[in-house]
Amino acid sequence: MPDTASLIAFALVCLGMVLTPGPNMIYLISRSICQGRMAGLISLGGVALGFLFYMASAALGITAVLMAVPYAYDVLRFGGALYLLYLAWQAIKPGGRSPFQVRQLPPDSPRKLFLMGFLTNLLNPKIAMVYLSLLPQFIDPARGDVLLQGLVLGATQTVISVTVNGLIALAAGSIASFLGSRPLWLVAQRWLMATVLAGLAVRMATEARR
């Protein structure tokens, strides 16, 4: 088992990361507002499965293989950066909307909601970096089974991310109502999110392989 100090430090890092706007947050908010809290929670189930997939992949070494194959990580990295830039443009383009802005979308079936949540998380290359670069820094071989420590840390990250995203999904409607009565706040929120997403995209595209 990881020592308490390392576990707390890792948990705080994970909390900071999940509070940063990204594809998971945008998708969950939009579905919660457009189709209700239950749709947001079903989508969150798919996101959670994506975390479990990466955790299992890291444990089995699949993620390490991906990072070792020439160009495989670069393709994933640039693809993720382009996706984030696309989301940033969608936020600030003429006629663009905030994810907190209420709008009508065709309702998706529970199966599609779950699948889209899973794919949204699965196609996020930063998650691979969490398990390959960040997580190993908190593992101490002297404290016993490395695989067990990795699974404990991975489970910690999953619980924190699912909990925070779940609260965001449940509160999305209230936040949308608050912002809806304040048009200037909606504009500011759109530009803030676009700036954050664009910054993440640039960092992802220029980040060297570790």
Provide keyphrases for this structure.
single chain; 210 residues; mainly alpha
Tell me about this structure.
This protein is mainly α and 210 residues long. The chain has one domain. It has 9 helices and no strands. The radius of gyration is 18 Å and the shape is globular. The model has no long low-confidence stretch (mean pLDDT 76).
Quick take:
The protein has helices spanning 4-18, 23-35, 37-60, 62-68, 72-92, 110-122, 125-134, 146-180, 183-206. 77% of the residues lie in helices and 0% in strands.
Number of separate structural domains = 1
Helix share of residues?
Answer: over 70%
Morphology call: globular
Q: Using the CA coordinates, give the radius of gyration.
A: 18 Å
- What order do the SSEs take from the amino end to the carboxyl end, as H and E? HHHHHHHHH
Low-confidence stretches: none
Alpha-beta classification:
mainly alpha
Largest sheet: none
Record the SSE blueprint.
Blueprint: H1 4-18, H2 23-35, H3 37-60, H4 62-68, H5 72-92, H6 110-122, H7 125-134, H8 146-180, H9 183-206
Helix pairs in contact: 1-8, 2-3, 2-6, 2-8, 3-6, 3-7, 3-8, 5-9
